[in-house]
Amino acid sequence: MDFETRAIHEGQEPDPATGAVTVPIYQTSTYVQDAVGEHKGYDYSRVANPTRTALQICLASLEGAEHGIAFGSGIAATTTAMHLVNPGDRIVCVNDVYGGVYRMFSQVYSPKGYEFEFVSADEINSNFREHLDERTRLVWLESPTNPLLNVIDIRAAAAAAHEVGAVVVVDNTFASPYLQQPLALGADIVLHSTTKYLSGHSDVVGGFLATNDPTIAERLYFLQKSLGAIPGPFDCWLVLRGIKTLAVRMRQHCENARRVAAFLESHDSVERVLYPGLPSHPGHELASRQMRDFGGMISFLAHSEEEAVELVARTAIWKLAESLGGVESLIEHPARMTHASTADAPFAAPRNLVRLSVGIESVDDLIADLETALVRSAAATPS
Ligand SMILES: *Cc1c(COP(=O)(O)O)cnc(C)c1O
What we know:
Blueprint: H1 3-9, H2 50-62, E1 67-71, H3 74-82, E2 90-94, H4 99-109, E3 115-119, H5 121-127, E4 136-142, H6 154-163, E5 167-171, H7 176-179, E6 189-193, E7 207-211, H8 214-227, H9 233-244, H10 246-265, E8 270-274, H11 284-290, E9 297-302, H12 305-312, E10 319-320, E11 330-332, E12 353-357, H13 363-380
Parallel strand pairs: 2-3, 2-4, 4-5, 5-6, 10-11
Antiparallel strand pairs: 1-7, 6-7, 8-9, 9-12, 11-12
The protein binds pyridoxal-5'-phosphate.
């Protein structure tokens, strides 16, 4: 079955007890047993819950995975994945990684004796083998990256990592499985913050891991119940509901982003637009090969930090907020907001960078709103 059909039906047969078309929210912590150890597959909701099972089956299918494991947040999924490695192990990570993941790696795991090397997307695409050795157990990638929208050749990076026996995790939050499927490109594990495009309505926080490796899957199911970073049934239900419209939403996000990027590229107040869909973007060709379309995230450089900070507070439809991937358009200043935790790193977000999460409102309204904010920004700047 095609993606759109599986997004609506996979793992979601009508409820056998009542015929309910939508998977119920099984708001229960425990389940009655007919005799000791005799039950219907569920004994306690940290271990398993039917609403969570439906989500795990559906989203795994969309990533082309045999196994899916849901978590209470993207960061909870990251913590759990980090329990696949041990202190002393080496982890190689793309350097413009999500700020919260960078904070966890540098301030939680690094002090415990895990060894990290942060490598630029450029270096991963050109010279990755030199950063890998037999002690490298984990390779952590994002593509497109956050907030610079760099594109990593996932197939080539995974092949290089596998030469030294490292496990490859790809954070697929920005693309969503509709646009990119990292397991098919050679990744071992795909990670999602389901908070973003998958749920799509900025009303829930969640995370997910998917894999086709049975040994990794078994360990992740064990870690899910043993570490306990699980999502509740209502949160699972919200993500499941969001996923049903993922394909139509993503098509509109991409369409709107294409128009917004072209508008920004032609504007005097904008120094540079970072969007893989623009032929001028260095990752354009690679993205065309490994993605179905270019996504709804755009970053751009204003002429100064001051202009960037003022601009993001001046739009009306574009709301000044962290996060991304919802139906509503958001604007933010990474250096002071989402990526403040990388401020002291050599690869800190540029101070004049603005990040957009392009929503699915009327694109004409979105462009008009940006135009007003940019014109006033240009007028306020002495030349
Ligand atoms: C938001 C985000 C995360 C963290 O997920 P939470 O659901 O906020 O815990 C990880 N990676 C990327 C790319 C993200 O955008």
